[in-house]
Amino acid sequence: MSLYSSDVEYPAGQSGIEIGIALNAFRHGGGIERYAMDLVRALGTLGISPHVYANRIDQDLPETAAIKPHVLGSPLIPRRLKPYYLSARLRHVRTRDNLSCLIGCSRNRASDLAICGGTHIGFLRSTGKKAGIMDRLELKLERDFYARSLAVVAHSRLMQTELEQIYGIVPSKIHVIYPPVSSQSFFPLAPGEREMLRERLNFPKDELLFLFVSTGHKRKGFDLLRQYFEAARAPFRLLVAGRPITSTSSRISHIGYRNDLGDVYRAVDFTIHPSYYEPFGLACVESLKCGTPVIISDRVGAGEVIADEAKVVMPTLDGKGLAQAIEEAAQRHNSLKERSRSESIRYNDDPIHHIQALLRLCRSVHPAPGTR
Fold first, then answer.
1. pLDDT > 50? residue 369
2. What sign results for the dihedral spanned by CA atoms 172, 115, 223, 332?
3. What is the CATH number of the domain that holds 135?
4. What is the DSSP string of 307-372?
5. Is residue 185 part of a domain?
6. CA 215/CA 25 separation, integer angstroms
7. 339 pLDDT band (50/70/90 cuts)?
8. What pLDDT digit, counting tens, does each position of 280-298 carry?
9. Using one digit for the tens of pLDDT, what is the confidence trace for 20-69?
10. Fewest CB atoms less than 10 Å from the CB: which of 57, 92, 148, 236?
11. Domain range spanning residue 325?
12. 207 and 336 co-located in one domain
């Protein structure tokens, strides 16, 4: 049976179905945190309240009311050791809670499905960092995560290649299932509303705005962006959403962590990601759903599923390649904007569709609830 069949193997609201999600922190954050919240919302639509196991759970999130929260962390555990403590606790609690399926959004040794939204080796290579003691511990946990799981879910074919070639995972164990994006938060503007939105967000109306969404600036190519925009003479501005930046340029504005990213995508002209390593890149799909085209490097996994007419790909991953891509995007602005919509995303990104695929996969590989 195809994993993308419309009939889920776990009937909505069925008594006794216990689904778990493990991650380091259930809160607003980067891609994996947003992904976990999408899973929670989709499961809720199916009538399933999942167990969420984390070192930290933000009790103020609306999504927290839809879960069975389990804070497994301890304030006595050093921050860098918390993932290992969480992993050790999970083996006990998954049996205690008689889980039918444990979805691992963080590295651990107890999950049925190992979600691969990026690998630590890939991260180290992209940043040029030499593996230290903690990196070697993390790599050991990551290898165990993939080896002990019943199936590995890769969020892109880029990740599938890494898992096979670097980690030695057999192809039959890897399933490429692209991540979901909520249409409730990410949707295009009605005609004529963009100028009013810019005014409300206090964004300049007379500049071409480029949005960079990042919690890992070095890996995502911020240095290239900083060099380009600090020297830019055209009326271009870079907006950086996420971690603080170091720049005094009037052409670069830090807009902080945002809970209104949908509005930000809708207000800007382009979303830009010159990443050295981007396993998928949810920001690219979110942007397109809001009607905003993307500028990316050829190392962005989401490029696999974005139609050519809605993206500009850097010819080389350097300053010259970035400048060429921005120049092309500016020249093609109107046509790119016209063609950037949900139809330019070449997979079904509906969260319900995605969670059904995960549950079906778990059912196909799991021998019986509570037996692991």
1. no
2. positive
3. 3.40.50.2000
4. -GGGEEE-SSSSHHHHHHHHHHHHHTHHHHHHH-SGGGB-S---HHHHHHHHHHHHHHH--STT--
5. no
6. 15
7. confident
8. 999 999 999 999 999 999 9
9. 999 999 998 778 998 999 999 999 999 999 999 999 999 999 999 999 99
10. 92
11. 194-344
12. yes
Same-domain status, 115 and 236: no
Clarify whether residues 175 and 64 are in a common domain: yes
The mean pLDDT of 294-315, rounded to a whole number, is: 96
Tokens of 287: 């942007």
The whole-angstrom separation of Cα 4 and Cα 28 is 28
Number of independent structural domains in the chain: 2
For residues 80 and 124, the answer to whether their CB atoms sit within 8 Å is no
Give the predicted TM-score (pTM) of the model: 0.89
Cβ pair 112, 173 in contact under 8 A: no
For residue 176, the cross-strand partners are 154
Q: Is 294 helix (H, G, I), strand (E, B) or coil?
A: strand
- For residues 108 and 211, membership in a common domain is answered with no
Per the structure block, which two tokens stand in for 131?
Answer: 């593996």
Provide mean pLDDT across the span 249-258: 92
What whole-number distance in Å separates Cα of residue 147 and Cα of residue 161? 16
